[in-house]
């Protein structure tokens, strides 16, 4: 089922997600719905807060990035088919040089900004089997994971840009909060709740 994506300004996007137990109700259904919602919106990642659930859960599929002709073949191959569910993730380390990439977010439509992130991460998480794994990722995969991990920590990519850039996008952010934005996927806005 395709879920509405929560728009910028909703308090759920600022909550730190709660850990999920193995017997969490409807977890498999929630995960399936999140993938369907992400694909419907042409995203490469989606976190539970973006569908109104303050949980430590996010899903990613970096396959769309594999079509980027500017990338080396090896990186294209890594991105193609990289699909993973992250439950109860904890960032162990972010290291390597910081590098810039123009990021966007399904909860903040029509806003894209350059964000600096570390090139490599070490993260502990569970997949749907709840077996704890610790893995190292780098490049675009690491960036997508960092972006989605921020969501379960109540952080948005707009928090990582300069105060000048924040001032320049204030009107766009206000419009999103008020539901004055148009995109080709379902959204739910704080200003339209209760109407």
Automatic annotation (TrEMBL):
<keyword id="KW-0648">Protein biosynthesis</keyword>
<dbReference type="InterPro" id="IPR023635">
    <property type="entry name" value="Peptide_deformylase"/>
</dbReference>
<dbReference type="GO" id="GO:0006412">
    <property type="term" value="P:translation"/>
</dbReference>
<feature type="binding site">
    <location>
        <position position="105"/>
    </location>
    <ligand>
        <name>Fe cation</name>
    </ligand>
</feature>
<dbReference type="Pfam" id="PF01327">
    <property type="entry name" value="Pep_deformylase"/>
</dbReference>
<dbReference type="GO" id="GO:0046872">
    <property type="term" value="F:metal ion binding"/>
</dbReference>
<feature type="binding site">
    <location>
        <position position="147"/>
    </location>
    <ligand>
        <name>Fe cation</name>
    </ligand>
</feature>
<keyword id="KW-0479">Metal-binding</keyword>
<dbReference type="InterPro" id="IPR036821">
    <property type="entry name" value="Peptide_deformylase_sf"/>
</dbReference>
<comment type="function">
    <text>Removes the formyl group from the N-terminal Met of newly synthesized proteins. Requires at least a dipeptide for an efficient rate of reaction. N-terminal L-methionine is a prerequisite for activity but the enzyme has broad specificity at other positions.</text>
</comment>
<dbReference type="GO" id="GO:0042586">
    <property type="term" value="F:peptide deformylase activity"/>
</dbReference>
<feature type="active site">
    <location>
        <position position="148"/>
    </location>
</feature>
<keyword id="KW-0408">Iron</keyword>
<keyword id="KW-0378">Hydrolase</keyword>
<protein>
    <recommendedName>
        <fullName>Peptide deformylase</fullName>
        <ecNumber>3.5.1.88</ecNumber>
    </recommendedName>
</protein>
<feature type="binding site">
    <location>
        <position position="151"/>
    </location>
    <ligand>
        <name>Fe cation</name>
    </ligand>
</feature>
<comment type="similarity">
    <text>Belongs to the polypeptide deformylase family.</text>
</comment>
């Amino acid at each position: 089922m395709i879920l509405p994506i929560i728009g910028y300004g909703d308090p759920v996007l600022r909550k730190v997600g709660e850990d999920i137990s193995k017997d969490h109700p409807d977890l498999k259904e929630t995960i399936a719905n999140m993938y369907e919602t992400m694909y419907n919106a042409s995203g490469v990642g989606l976190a539970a807060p973006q569908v109104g659930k303050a949980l430590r859960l996010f899903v990613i599929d970096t396959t769309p990035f594999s079509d980027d002709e500017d990338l080396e073949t090896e990186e294209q191959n890594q991105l193609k088919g990289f699909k993973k569910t992250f439950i109860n993730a904890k960032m162990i380390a972010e290291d390597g040089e910081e590098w810039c990439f123009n990021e966007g977010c399904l909860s903040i439509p029509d806003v894209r900004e350059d964000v600096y992130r570390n090139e490599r991460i070490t993260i502990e998480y569970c997949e749907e089997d709840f077996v704890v794994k610790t893995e190292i990722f780098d490049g675009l995969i690491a960036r997508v994971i960092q972006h989605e991990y921020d969501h379960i920590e109540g952080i948005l990519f707009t928090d990582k840009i300069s105060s000048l850039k924040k001032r320049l996008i204030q009107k766009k952010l206000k419009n999103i909060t008020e539901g004055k934005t148009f995109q080709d996927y379902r959204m739910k806005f704080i200003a339209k709740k209760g109407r």
